[in-house]
Amino acid sequence: MSTVTPLRPAAPPRTGRVALLGTGVVGSAVVERYRQLRVRGVPLPPFAWLSNSRVQVAAGDCLETAIAQARSAPRSGGPVPPWAEGESLARGDIVIDATASDTVAGWHPEWLLRGIHVVTANKLGNGGDLARAQAIVEAQREGARYGDSATVGAGLPLLRLIRELVAGGDRIHAVEGVLSGSLAWLLSRYDDTRPFSDLVREARDAGYAEPDPRQDLSGEDVRRKLLILARASGLPLEAREIRVSSLVPDALRDAAPEAVDAQLAALDAPLRERFLNAYRNDARLCFVGRFDAERGASVGLRALPLSHPLASGHGTDNRAAIFSDRYSDQPLVVQGPGAGARVTAAALLDDVLRIWTAR
Ligand SMILES: NC(=O)C1=CN([C@@H]2O[C@H](COP(=O)(O)OP(=O)(O)OC[C@H]3O[C@@H](n4cnc5c(N)ncnc54)[C@H](OP(=O)(O)O)[C@@H]3O)[C@@H](O)[C@H]2O)C=CC1
Ligand SMILES: N[C@@H](CC=O)C(=O)O
């Protein structure tokens, strides 16, 4: 009997487990999508544990039980997050950051240096402090990978596209776009028949808004996304270099977290006035972020003519135009849903699979 020679050597068994930080809107959707993919037979790294700010729970045989246990854990208020004291991560593991925590983002470079891959929806890794963003780039030289698709456009192929253009030698001149899914949704819904603040509550309950909706309404969330895009384009912008026009009145800005809901009505009168002005001029309100290698960067509300390319999205649509050497007269435009737990969870697990199957 002749022996059969394999055309390719057998792939070494894949190693590495996945761990999840954050069991809120996005973290819960990650668990649900992981379950669906497993039912469909998609090969996935084993789940080690999940954690929120209160408790770390081993995934065990039933992920659904583990997340239910984590979500119902009492608040302890200890100074050290549970995952920092509990079962630790090993080289080759993949940690998913589905928090909005600056403390967790501060760990990104440290994990990468230890050979632990990081996949994140949290924009405070490469969309906050420039030194941290640069440390994340440096740390990847050790071999671990950073999956940040979910941080801009909830996984729309915008960030990836910019990196591919840059890798191909293109120079990015400017990016301009509607980069907030929640604000896109709010401004496409608002027609002065209901108070703007009611819609903000709806956007929060639908999972489009940040844990603190003031991050969206102040333009801070868009500033972070713009920093991520600019840095990926080779422009080492600092947060303070972006001019941001906030929609948040002082009373709401200064409210304690538990008083935010009661203060949302402070948004209503100024927004109504901006809306009516735009309406009278056949314009539509859009919250736009732009960076330009020559002319700087800004974030704020604009009244755009109805025919303007950025004024045509629906629902949570993000719409971004990239101007580069190659796309100088007509920009390259990317459009699609830019917020929501399901698309964000899909982007996170896409990154996990990209990293896990690349080995
Ligand atoms: N919603 C969307 O469309 C998108 C969201 N994102 C990003 O996803 C992230 C998560 O958002 P969302 O799910 O809405 O937020 P939630 O507030 O619903 O959940 C946040 C989770 O993070 C946990 N957490 C906070 N601090 C820590 C810590 N130190 N260690 C471990 N866990 C911690 C919280 O724990 P606890 O439950 O104990 O409070 C909570 O479980 C944000 O960074 C957001 O910007 C990105 C793209 C799109
Ligand atoms: N709050 C964000 C969610 C995605 O990043 C948004 O509104 O776009």
UniProtKB/TrEMBL annotation:
Catalytic reactions of this protein: L-homoserine + NADP(+) = L-aspartate 4-semialdehyde + NADPH + H(+); L-homoserine + NAD(+) = L-aspartate 4-semialdehyde + NADH + H(+)
Domain annotation Aspartate/homoserine dehydrogenase NAD-binding: ranges: 22-143
SUPFAM superfamilies linked: Glyceraldehyde-3-phosphate dehydrogenase-like, C-terminal domain, NAD(P)-binding Rossmann-fold domains
Annotated Pfam families: Homoserine_dh (PF00742), NAD_binding_3 (PF03447)
Superkingdom of the organism of origin: Bacteria
Domain Homoserine dehydrogenase catalytic intervals: 157-353
Cofactor(s) annotated in UniProt: a metal cation
EC assignment: 1.1.1.3
Enzyme class: oxidoreductase
Name of the protein described by the UniProt record: Homoserine dehydrogenase
Protein's organism: Luteimonas composti
